[in-house]
Structures are given as C-alpha cells and as structure tokens.
Amino acid sequence: MPPTLGLVLAGGRARRMGGGDKALLRVGDSTILDRVLARLGPQCERLLINANGDPGRFAATRLPVVADDVGGFAGPLAGILAGLDWAARNEPGIRWVVSVPGDCPFLPRDLVARLHAARAAQSVPLACARSGAWSHPVVALWSVDLREDLRRALVEEDLRKIDLWTARHGIAVSDWPDEPLDPFFNVNTPEDLEVANRLARLHPD
To answer: pTM, whole model, 2 decimals?
Structure first.
C-alpha cells in the first residue's frame, strides 16, 4: 500500500449542534476526534487536521493543523485542497491523502487499504467509501497530483460539490455493510450524539 497521509476534516461550523467543534464532543470515555485518530493513525504515515480558527484547541493531539487555502468556508473540497497542498510541501514522498470527517467515531480499521485496493482495481486516481445505499464522498482517497486541478475548480469555477469534481477524473467505490453498525455514522445533532454513545456501549470495539 502506498504511503498515505491521513487528513481529518474538522473545519465545519456544526450549525445543527449549535456551533463549536463536533470532533471534541465525547463518545464514551473519549472525544470523537481521539476515536478517529486511534482508528486512522495505524493506517497512515502521518496525520493532519484541517480546521479554521484557533489551532490551539487541537494542541492536545500534537498534530499539525492546517486551515483552508480557499476563503469563505468553501466546504470540504477546500479542506481537502489544504491537505493536498500540505502534503506536497511537507511530505513530498507521500502522493496519497485519505480524508475523513472529524465526527465519525466508528471508522473502519481497514479503510485505507480497501480504498487503495478499489482505486487500483479500476485504475482511477480517486476512491470513496459507501455503506449500504449511502456513498460518503468525504471519506475518500485523493491523489496529490490532482491538487492544481482542484484549485482551479474551486477558485476559477467556484465549484463546491465533491461529486461533480471527482466525476471528471474517475472514482472507485469501496463498500461496507451498514449493519449492525454503520462505520461511517456521523454526529450532526445532539440526538446523533446520544445514538453514538449507545452504539459505543453496544459495540465497544
């Protein structure tokens, strides 16, 4: 498996949670972010957090924090571009970035390997996860070589929809079951947080 940088997208504004950082909410005995890092870390060469505002709120992770390259809260693609740019500047030997949301406490431990396998099988530069009938375009594998094309799409075309951009290059899909636990369950609301805590008790691994 090629060396891969893990990028945790924690730059959302969490409107449905009333603001703040969803990644710092607790599920069980840990923050969601700690759970994400524990699951993703062993699969990657390095980890990076994408977040806007004061990076000091993530100081406990001792990880680099990079803000969006494109202003105006341009959505997940801006965070992905920031991760690709960071990899190109700081880790030129890493040509792949896997992105995950910072609010998914149950990520699979074989995520990166399976995304790479799907990409290689279809000879395309991108791959994303799907569970049941739902695709997860932010849980995805990205080629650093596409970063200038992504920058043009964001800056010159004002493109914001992930699916529109990935369709231009070809994207493979890797499937996971969504029962008994959807590995890509994400916490968007206070009710979701209650569900996540219940799931964590039922599925401690």
So the answer is: 0.94
